[in-house]
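Trying the structure run again after the queue cleared.
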Amino acid sequence: VPDGDSKIDHYVLEYRKTNFEGPPRAKEEQPWMVVEGIKGTEYTLSGLKFDMKYMNFRVRACNKAVAGEFSEPVTLETRAFMFRLDASTCHQNLRVEELSVEWDATGGKVQDVKARDKDGKGRTASPANSPAR
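Done. Tokens:
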């Protein structure tokens, strides 16, 4: 094949959910999802859900005329680390809701607390007394 015809123009990535660890199964019920037009040799697949424990991936190279054969599929695990955020103990500038965390530069949930010293001078509560952890 002449050099001009064999130059890789882009890659096609296909992936699907599987319930099995280890080598990909020949017959899977899940359809392949397709990502076309990948120009580089690295790609970040976003939007995966944590319930997709195992995923099959395969890729093929394409030039301007034809697509090559798919690579041997590989199976990867999308591990999830489960944790909870506690609104009562988080940093004072974080607004924590059930499924989101938002930075609030005004320190929304803790207002400037004034305390009185023995000599009557006002002072701002020290960071040691704030709920920041």
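The first strand starts at residue 10 and ends at 18. Worth checking whether this holds up in the mutant runs.
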